[in-house]
Amino acid sequence: MGSSAIFSFPRFLQFFFIFLALAQNPGLEGSHLSRIFDILDQEASPPSVQEAAARGVLARLLPSHLSSFDFKIVSKEKCGGKPCFMISNHPSLGGKGAPEILIGGISGVELSAGLHWYLKHLCMAHISWDKTGGVQLSSVPEPGFLPHVHSAGVLIQRPVPWNYYQNAVTSSYTSVWWDWERWEKEIDWMALQGINLPLAFTGQEAIWQKVFKMFNISSSDLNEFFGGPAFLAWSRMGNLHG
Ligand SMILES: *[C@@H]1O[C@H](CO)[C@@H](O)[C@H](O)[C@H]1NC(C)=O
């Protein structure tokens, strides 16, 4: 046991350095990652759909201020080639009922993250899970009195394209019995935090079922093999035997 731990340590370092080399090699990133980004760009919903999605988050979070914010999808070029959101005073800076703050971003998630950034940093609001404070918006001024950002606006670029969330067992021990209402709240929370890569194991067993059936394994044998809803994570990892 002791000696294998000693021998595995340099191997771990070796993998670590290979990983570093991959991460720092722009050629590899160019060939593999840019293809993934191209596919994602092609699959993205039209700007109007993404803007409406961000508006939907606002409508559920702070319906009193639905007309105070305007959302606009912008190109990555406008963001200096990086994922970003940007916040400016709305050009039509009007009185009551008129939009006051314009939020731009490369995706619906970035628009929502920009909304959260504004509410947090300019209105001192707090948006969290219920058990860590929940949603506290009483410090947000009334429509018509929202704080301005400085005239140059705010530009927040992300250093990395992916903002990851969840681990392999959360779907079983936390969210297994959630209904849509609870999921919608979580998805809104994710968007407000700028998460664009949540782990979604949903449907894993349906794929395995198809594959195993090609090998003529019967449904009743498969039903014995797959875990129950609350244990799916552990059966997926091969930790359950029955
Ligand atoms: C599955 O069963 C069918 C019908 O008996 C047979 O033709 C096929 O070769 C089997 N497939 C495998 C992978 O054993």
CATH superfamily of the largest domain: Chitobiase/beta-hexosaminidase domain 2-like
**Rg on CA atoms, Å:** 23 Å
Q: In whole angstroms, how far apart are the ends?
A: 29 Å
- Any low-confidence stretches, pLDDT <50, length ≥5? 1-24
**Can you count the beta strands?**
8
Strand content: 5-15%
With helices defined by DSSP (H or I, 4 residues minimum), what is the helix count?
9
Provide the structure class: alpha/beta
Q: How many domains make up the 3D coordinates?
A: 2
**What profile does the largest beta sheet have?**
4 strands, mixed
CATH class label of the largest domain:
Alpha Beta
Mean pLDDT, to the nearest integer, reads 86
Features:
9 helices; 2 domains; 242 residues; four-stranded mixed beta sheet; alpha/beta; 46% helix; Chitobiase, domain 2; two-stranded antiparallel sheet
Account of the 3D structure:
This protein has 242 residues and is α/β, with parallel strands linked by helices. It has 9 helices and 8 strands. It has helices at residues 2-24, 26-43, 47-61, 108-121, 170-173, 180-193, 204-214, 219-225, 232-236, and strands at 69-73, 84-89, 101-105, 126-127, 135-136, 154-157, 164-165, 197-198. The radius of gyration is 23 Å and the shape is elongated. The protein binds 2-acetamido-2-deoxy-beta-D-glucopyranose. 2-acetamido-2-deoxy-beta-D-glucopyranose (NAG) binds next to loops.
Kindly summarize this structure in a few lines.
It comes from Cinnamomum micranthum f. kanehirae. The chain has nine helices and eight strands.
